């Protein structure tokens, strides 16, 4: 893994798979939480998409492969089995802004990523808030949840207020 001064500000990470050596390069100008997310994203490509030799990633979800790598990276950095109980605990014990910052710092991610994770775990949150143990949750992709019309848990605005200043946020 290398940090490089990418000429493009949009390019987050690159994975090049070789026969004997594979490399991941990250944009050294990105924040540490963003680099952590991108490293997890590229590792997810490496593990999940073994028929592809190269990825140039700019953080968009244009293809199913990019979406899949983003979901895997989110689970790697914010595993739902750990994240959901802590989220519920934070909701009852903290004020709405400090809870968001505490979660972001605890997991080493941006506040936007915490919000995105709450959004993407909506159905799981709905189950968890109704007493389903975390190891018994039914995991269903967001698109399938929408297709099936499944109920949704509270969104990130229920748990957090938006920070008036940007802390560890760079769009991830
Ligand atoms: Zn990618």
SSE blueprint and pairings:
Elements: E1 2-4, E2 13-16, E3 23-27, H1 32-48, E4 54-57, H2 64-77, H3 80-93, H4 96-107, H5 111-120, H6 122-129, H7 142-148, H8 156-159
Parallel strand pairs: 1-3
Antiparallel strand pairs: 2-3, 2-4
This protein binds zinc ion.
Zinc ion binds next to helix 1, strand 4 and helix 2.
Please provide a written account of the structure:
It is built from 8 helices and 4 strands. With 172 residues, the protein is an alpha+beta fold. The protein has 2 domains: 2-77, no CATH class; 80-159, no CATH class. Strands 1-3-2-4 form a 4-stranded mixed sheet, with helices on one face. A hairpin with a 6-residue loop joins strand 2 and strand 3 (23-27). 30% of the residues are buried. The mean pLDDT is 86. The structure holds zinc ion. Zinc ion (ZN) is lined by residues 41, 45, 55, 57, 66, 69.
């Amino acid at each position: 893994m290398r940090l490089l001064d990418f000429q493009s500000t949009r390019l987050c990470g690159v994975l090049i798979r070789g026969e004997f050596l594979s490399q991941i390069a990250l944009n050294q100008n990105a924040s540490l939480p963003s680099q952590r997310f991108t490293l997890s994203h590229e590792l997810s490509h490496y593990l999940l998409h073994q028929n592809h030799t190269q990825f140039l990633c700019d953080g968009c979800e244009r293809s199913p492969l990019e979406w899949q790598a983003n979901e895997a990276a989110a689970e790697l950095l914010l595993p739902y089995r750990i994240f959901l109980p802590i989220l519920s605990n934070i909701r009852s014990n903290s004020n709405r802004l400090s809870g968001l910052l505490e979660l972001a710092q605890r997991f080493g991610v941006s506040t936007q990523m915490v919000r995105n994770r709450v959004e993407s775990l909506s159905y799981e949150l709905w189950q968890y808030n109704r007493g389903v143990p975390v190891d018994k949750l039914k995991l269903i992709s967001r698109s399938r949840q929408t297709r099936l019309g499944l109920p949704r848990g509270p969104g990130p605005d229920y748990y957090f207020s938006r920070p008036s200043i940007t802390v560890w946020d760079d769009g991830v």
